[in-house]
Amino acid sequence: MRPALIVSILFALLCMSGCGGDMVPAADREVAVAFADVLDLYNERLELTEQAVLLARKHLSPDAPALAQIGRSRTAVADLHASSALLDSPASFERFDVAQRDLTDAFSQLLIACEGIRRLKASPAFRALQSRLASSAGRIAFARERYDEAARRYNAARHRFPFALADMLHPTQDRPAFAAPDGTPVHRHPRTDFDALRGSLRVESQRFRPRA
Known about the structure:
Elements: H1 3-16, H2 23-57, H3 65-79, H4 90-115, H5 118-121, H6 124-158, H7 163-169, H8 194-207
């Protein structure tokens, strides 16, 4: 590195102490706090997963595909041992994001299977679980957006002068952001076979047709 460049960097670092030099560290703290909230909310949802599985097992077959799918998704999430260290590894952060969205999809399939059982669908426990799950999804979506905004502010601060010069001496990396929204687990009503329904109605009408 040329002496002139070294002098420029040192001068910039000195100037930072008097012009908001704590901007990047403060932005990084904001990122850490926002991501900690995301982790806490996902951990709460993992507890809801356990409750959902216990409720579903009382009514679904042990080999039901929805139970198998949510079991695999729960294991994938647990195996990640998610922590703030994910912020330093974009690849690990992406695996975390994908695993959580897969768990959301698995939740959706489990709800669909449960809604196919009239007694379970009408139970207060199932309705309460749906309500808690919707509330959890809303809070998670808000926390993810808050984290993404904090990450964008941090990344922008890193690339502004004079902080970009400091990064040449102590290289850091941008904070990763979530690639796609994590939706709300939703139920989809089973598809009605209208041809079969019309056939059934024709049979019923013939049964009750008055004889000539």
